[in-house]
């Protein structure tokens, strides 16, 4: 089979999925790289796989009996958002992001704009055993190529729910029986002394990378929890703080 070029209609249509309006209109997105493609295949949402000849051979075991469309290197460069493409990109259908009926641990991200941070929180939530992630307010699109790549396949492992109203996301978590804990540098509860609280079914509420949580949103949480800063650092970045909080909850739940 002769590899498709960058000017091929199918390649050009797939390349349009780098734009959010196109993704929303077609309800499709791109999964870039072997981990993302593997997750998409496992989730059964792949529409089409594009690969260079070398990548198709290298990842033959991962691809199994999936139909693969070969493309040349220039076409792959346009499909991939990576500086150094792995040579494997899949067009995927949107996932059905719904909260499970009785979650014990989930993450709510309010106005998280950076796709790398959002993808890392999704990955960390997955690793810590959370059952869903909610991207609320003006948070980044979960299907942004950088978000998908930063999740390293975790986007396909747990529901990622989009909620326009952060306050509604908090109230919904509370209605499901979860204690909502706002990660707040000035919080009244010290994370290191909160094991009893952390053992409860919990929704962690994380704010924007630059300005954190708005006061009116933080006030809706059941408690505000601070991570002790033991050295001279001013603070932790969002993804690191989320990892510390989620694993503290996972540890407390395992010990309860």
From TrEMBL:
Domain of life according to the entry: Bacteria
Keywords for the protein's UniProt record, in alphabetical order: Methyltransferase, Transferase
Region (Disordered) residue spans: 1-24
Domain RNA 2-O ribose methyltransferase substrate binding: 30-98
UniProt GO BP: methylation; RNA processing
Signal peptide residues on this chain, from the entry's feature table: none
InterPro entries hit by this protein: Alpha/beta_knot_MTases, MRM3-like_sub_bind, Ribosomal_eL30-like_sf, rRNA_Methyltransferase, SpoU_MeTrfase, SpoU_subst-bd, tRNA_m1G_MTases_N
One of the record's GO molecular function terms: RNA methyltransferase activity
Gene Ontology CC entries for this record: cytoplasm
Keyword match Chloroplast: no
Similarity comment: family membership: Belongs to the class IV-like SAM-binding methyltransferase superfamily. RNA methyltransferase TrmH family.
Protein name: TrmH family RNA methyltransferase
């Amino acid at each position: 089979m002769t590899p498709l070029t960058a000017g091929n209609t199918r390649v050009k249509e797939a390349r349009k999925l780098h734009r959010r309006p196109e993704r929303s209109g077609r309800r499709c997105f791109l999964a870039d790289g072997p981990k993302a493609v593997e997750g998409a295949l496992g989730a059964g949402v792949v529409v089409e796989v594009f690969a260079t000849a070398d990548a198709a051979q290298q990842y033959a075991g991962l691809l199994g009996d999936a139909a693969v469309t070969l493309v040349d290197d220039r076409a792959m460069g346009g499909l991939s958002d990576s500086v150094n493409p792995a040579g494997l990109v899949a067009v995927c259908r949107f996932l059905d992001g719904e909260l499970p009926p009785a979650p014990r641990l989930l993450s709510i991200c309010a106005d998280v704009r950076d796709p790398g941070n959002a993808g890392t929180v999704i990955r960390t939530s997955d690793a810590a055993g959370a059952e869903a992630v909610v991207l609320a307010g003006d948070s980044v699109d979960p299907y942004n190529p950088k978000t998908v790549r930063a999740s390293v396949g975790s986007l396909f492992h747990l529901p990622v729910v989009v909620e326009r109203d952060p306050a509604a996301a908090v109230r919904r978590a509370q209605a499901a029986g979860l204690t909502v804990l706002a990660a707040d540098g000035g919080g009244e509860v010290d994370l290191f002394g909160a094991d009893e609280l952390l053992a409860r079914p919990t929704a962690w509420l994380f704010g924007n990378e630059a300005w954190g949580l708005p006061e009116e949103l933080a006030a809706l949480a059941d408690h505000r929890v601070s991570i002790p800063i033991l050295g001279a650092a001013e603070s932790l970045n969002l993804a690191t703080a989320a990892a510390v909080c989620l694993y503290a909850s996972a540890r407390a739940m395992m010990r309860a």
